[in-house]
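lol forgot to send this yesterday, sorry. C-alpha cells for the thing we talked abt
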C-alpha cells in the first residue's frame, strides 16, 4: 500500500498538478485523468477541473463510470462517499486506482496539460461542506484552522482569538451559502426532468390512442410512489428529492 505522501507525489508528477491533500481527489477530475493516461480516449472536455459543488463532482464521476463500463473495468465506484471529499474514502480508492494504473499503463508518454487543454487543475474548494464536519478536526473542510491567521487590527494579542473565530465562522457561512445554492440548482434540475417525464406519461395515458404497453403505467407508478414514513404534502404529489442519482 502506497502512503499518502507517495500517492500525492505520483499523482502530481503524472498529471502535472499540485495537489496537497488526498481529499482533493473527491472532485473526480484527477481520477478521470489517471484513467485517461492509460487509455488516452476519455472525454476530457466533459471533466470539470474547477468543480466546487457536489453536483459538479458527481458529473465528473459519471464520466468515470461511463469509461469503467466501456472498458469493462469491474470495480464499483463509491460515488456518494468520494464526493464528500473525506480523506480515508479517497485514500482507499486512490490506492486501488494506483494499483490498476501500475498493471495497465503501457509506459507511453502522456502530456497531462495538453489533455486538459489549459483547464485549472486545482478545485476552487477542497470539498463541499457537510453536516458531519471534517475528519481533520476543523469546522471548515479545506479552510484554515482556528488560530491560523492573525486578524488585521489594532487589538492586543489577547483579543485575537475571538476575531479569528468570527472570521472563521464568517468564511464557513459564506461557503455554506454557496453550497446551498448549488444544491438548490441540482434539486431544481432533477425536479424539472421528472416533471417533464410525468407530463409526457400523463399525455400518453390520456390520449385517445393510448398504448396498450403497460410501461407507461409502471413509470407513472414509480413517479408517484413514496417511501415508508413519507407523507405527500397538501397541494399535490411531489417528487422525492432524496432519490439516488446513481
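and heres what i got for the seq, position by position
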Amino acid at each position: 500500500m502506497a502512503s499518502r505522501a507517495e500517492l500525492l507525489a505520483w499523482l502530481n508528477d503524472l498529471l502535472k498538478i499540485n495537489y496537497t491533500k488526498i481529499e482533493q481527489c473527491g472532485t473526480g477530475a484527477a481520477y478521470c485523468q489517471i484513467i485517461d493516461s492509460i487509455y488516452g480516449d476519455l472525454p476530457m472536455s466533459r471533466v470539470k477541473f474547477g468543480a466546487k459543488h457536489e453536483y459538479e463532482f458527481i458529473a465528473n464521476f459519471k464520466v468515470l463510470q461511463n469509461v469503467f463500463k466501456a472498458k469493462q473495468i469491474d470495480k464499483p465506484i463509491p460515488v456518494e462517499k468520494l464526493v464528500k471529499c473525506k480523506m480515508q474514502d479517497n485514500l482507499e480508492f486512490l490506492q486501488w486506482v494506483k494499483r490498476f494504473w501500475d498493471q495497465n499503463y503501457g509506459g507511453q508518454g502522456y502530456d497531462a496539460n495538453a489533455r486538459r487543454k489549459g483547464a485549472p487543475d486545482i478545485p476552487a474548494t477542497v470539498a463541499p461542506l457537510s453536516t458531519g464536519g471534517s475528519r481533520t478536526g476543523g469546522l471548515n473542510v479545506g479552510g484554515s484552522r482556528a488560530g491560523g491567521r492573525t486578524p488585521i487590527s489594532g487589538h492586543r494579542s489577547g483579543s485575537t482569538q475571538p476575531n479569528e473565530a468570527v472570521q472563521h465562522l464568517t468564511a464557513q457561512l459564506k461557503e455554506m451559502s454557496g453550497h446551498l445554492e448549488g444544491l438548490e440548482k441540482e434539486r431544481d434540475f432533477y425536479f424539472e426532468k421528472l416533471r417533464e417525464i410525468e407530463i409526457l406519461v400523463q399525455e400518453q395515458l390520456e390520449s385517445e390512442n393510448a398504448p396498450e404497453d403497460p410501461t407507461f403505467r409502471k413509470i407513472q407508478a414509480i413517479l408517484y410512489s413514496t417511501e415508508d414514513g413519507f407523507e405527500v404534502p397538501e397541494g399535490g404529489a411531489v417528487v422525492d428529492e432524496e432519490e439516488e442519482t446513481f
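Residues 160-206 form the longest helix (47 residues). anyway ping me if u want another try
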